[in-house]
Design brief:
heterodimer; A: 454 residues; alpha+beta; Dna Ligase, domain 1; 2 domains; ten-stranded mixed sheet; six-stranded mixed sheet; 15 helices; 25% strand; B: 225 residues; mainly alpha; globular
Chain lengths: 454, 225
């Protein structure tokens, strides 16, 4: 189902109808020429490929985006307060707002970090929040918070430049918000928490799926792109080793690798992509890590259920953006509801990501549902259930034809001195008609997102 | 002006410069030799590739092009460009975006020709040379202001020196002197903060191998980290 057309959409289609559609092929040529890739490993082979791109942008009016912006600022502010509280005083648990065992069973919760407060008490610096627009009430709904290493911002950034070159008419005739400021927002966030020294972007290396993004953001934000073994820790301080052998102090690290790999001395001793000793330096307050270690607890699919409660608890406000109605089998009454309504619910495995571990009740047989009930009963913390949100499709120009595809929207929220919501984002669309999974790892593509006014 | 650069990125920039220059000089030699093989000296290609320590076998001028560019030997142009592409991807954040795109296109040109068994002729060589020329043009417009440009440029001129030593040493002493002067100048600027400055490179050494070893040893003292 498509969203009702607005004047902005009509204006877009009016201009689009006058454009040379053969030029659409130039986007793919551009992405190939500049190796704008999202790499993957398939059957043990490293494959370099560009993300499928669709030329029809998602259009969001400025007025609508302002509401999204406020809602996201509120949410990320609350999530930061939650993380800081959880790892220090833990009042929210002590006061019973979130059950203790629920937190402790979250795989991203790292009890070794209890009592530690990072630079400026900010923990979730660079965040990707996934939303969809519910067709039943025209409201935006939060589906997921990504507070560890969210990726994807470089793709709309790169494609916008090309769009302007290939089809300048849209930008001449409509007021589309410019988006080039994202790297400077990142740079400001890094500067704000910097403990003294240079900013670096830590990449696992050239064969990481998002190496293009690491390279792009380092270049544009002015952070030095480094691989783990190019950093060294001496006396609990992190240094970058310059080509001339000199050691340069590092004050802030935008790390693009997960907690478990970041320091083989602290976490997984078999990690070959970590920086030995970096956690010791971090705990000594000698370096800032963006994002903080231990954030996984807050973007756990089970903890997601409690975010509206966090907003009320920390900010004393009603949530501006709502969650999808969610049920936790952990609670007896929720378990009962889930078991009575499995056919219409979406069941998610909290340990999975990237569209994996998502089961749609309406696609399952009676036998499969019974099996799943048994699995949920045995391990209720492992699952959540959500009402299926019938979110809007977006028009896509695929195979030289206009087709409808489900599409979500990943918004980027960066916390430094202020909480900034980037006025663009990654709109991801599903590979097939009617498919609700839009993740790149599921074959989905991306669109540009235009925040605009007439 | 950039102040910092990792040893890995510096090395990749340096080798990118070398591989691009190697592609350009090799294609230039192939182009000249192709003309000779047609109707002047059928064995000219064999003689050329002896200098690369490669025994090249071909049946005619067209086959010479094919074997020289895609044959199974260490001067295979596609392999050289595959290395250049890897170098470029690793250090893309320090390259001019257009230059980066031309490098990917250059590699793609040879890959497509190889994979699709397309005809190899002078147009392929001309196109490749024009792309390489464009890459260096874009680079020169940056006026060598960046630290990264110096490593890239150094790769180019070291490869040029290497080429001259291997192929034209007897004829080009003055040219080699002038290339060494430029290498010394770039090395001086890149090593001003080193604990130990590398020695000035002089044209010395009795054999070709000694001179090449001396040239490479100089570079090893520039990139330490």
């Amino acid at each position: 189902m498509l969203e009702k057309s607005t004047e902005l959409h009509n204006k877009f289609w009016e201009i689009f109808s006058k454009q040379d559609r053969n030029k659409i092929d130039e986007f793919k040529l551009y992405m190939d020429k500049f190796a704008i890739n999202f790499n993957l490993y398939k059957d043990g082979n490293f494959i370099e490929q560009s993300l499928p791109f669709d030329v029809i942008p998602r259009i969001i009016s400025k007025q609508e985006f302002t509401k999204i912006e406020k809602g996201l600022q509120q949410r990320v502010q609350a999530l930061n307060l939650f993380l800081e509280d959880l790892y220090t005083d833990s009042k929210i648990v002590k006061e019973g707002v979130i059950p203790q065992e629920f937190v402790e069973q979250a795989s991203g919760y790292l009890k070794e970090f209890v009592g530690f407060s990072p630079s400026k008490k900010i923990r979730a610096h660079i965040n990707g929040i996934d939303l969809v627009k519910d067709s039943s009430d025209d409201e935006w709904v939060i589906l997921e918070d990504n507070l560890r290493v969210p990726s994807g911002a470089s793709y709309p950034l790169s494609i916008r430049d090309t769009y302007r070159k290939i089809y300048p008419d849209f930008f001449e005739q409509m007021k589309i918000d410019p988006i080039k400021n994202y790297p400077s927002i990142i740079a400001n966030a890094m500067d704000y928490v910097n403990t003294g020294g240079i900013n670096v972007l830590l990449t696992p290396g050239r064969f990481n799926s998002a190496y293009y993004e690491h390279s792009y953001l380092a270049e544009k934000s002015g952070a030095l792109l480094v691989r783990p073994h190019e950093l060294t820790v001496v006396d609990k301080k992190v240094y970058f080793k310059n080509y001339n052998g000199k050691l340069i102090k590092v004050g802030s690290v935008y790390r693009r690798l997960d907690d478990e790999f970041i320091d083989p001395k602290f976490f997984n001793p078999e990690s070959v992509i970590g920086v030995p000793g970096i956690i010791e330096a971090y705990l000594a307050g000698n370096v800032a890590l963006l994002n903080a270690v231990g954030n996984g607890v807050a973007d756990d699919k089970g903890i997601y259920y409690f975010v509206p409660k966090m907003i009320k608890y920390y900010l004393g406000e009603e949530p501006i953006l709502k969650n999808a109605p969610t049920y936790l089998p952990h609670f007896k009454e929720d378990m009962e509801y889930i078991f009575n309504n499995m056919e219409k619910l979406v069941i998610k495995d909290v340990a999975e990501a990237g569209g994996y571990g998502v089961l749609f009740g309406h696609e399952m047989s009676a036998l499969q549902i019974e099996d799943l009930k048994g699995i949920i009963k045995a391990n209720p913390r492992r699952f959540i259930a959500q009402e299926l949100i019938e979110f809007y499709d977006e028009k896509c120009y695929l195979k030289k034809d206009l087709q409808d595809r489900k599409a979500d929207f990943r918004a980027y929220v960066v916390v430094g001195e202020d909480v900034k919501v980037w006025n663009c984002g990654l709109t991801r669309y599903a590979l097939e008609e009617g498919n609700y999974l839009v993740n790149s790892s599921q074959g989905g593509g991306f669109k540009d997102t235009w925040v605009m006014e007439l | 002006m950039e102040k910092y650069i990792t040893g890995n990125v510096a090395t990749n920039l340096y080798w990118l410069g070398r591989y691009l220059e190697r592609t350009a000089t090799t294609l230039n030699e192939i182009s000249k030799t192709y003309d000779t093989v047609i109707d002047i000296d059928k064995d000219a290609g064999v003689k050329l590739y002896e200098k690369y320590d490669v025994v090249l076998k071909y049946t005619n001028a067209y086959d010479f092009l094919k074997e020289a560019i895609f044959g199974e030997h260490n001067a295979n142009i596609l392999n050289i460009l595959t290395n250049a592409r890897e170098n470029a991807i690793i250090c893309r954040h320090l390259l001019d975006n257009e230059a980066f795109g031309e490098i990917i296109e250059l590699h793609g040109l040879f890959l497509k020709t190889f994979n699709n068994h397309l005809e190899i002729d002078y147009k392929l060589i001309d196109h490749a040379q024009s792309l390489i020329g464009e890459i260096w043009n874009i680079h020169s417009m940056r006026h060598h202001k960046e630290l990264s440009d110096s490593f890239f440029r150094m790769g180019k001129i070291v490869e040029e020196a290497d080429y001259r030593i291997r192929f034209h040493e007897d004829d080009d002493q003055k040219i080699i002197q002038s290339i060494y002067k430029e290498i010394n100048s770039i090395c001086k600027s890149l090593t001003k903060n080193h604990d130990e400055s590398p020695e000035v490179l002089e044209v010395e050494g009795n054999t070709q191998d000694e001179r090449l070893t001396q040239l490479n040893a100089k570079i090893d003292k520039v990139i330490i980290g």
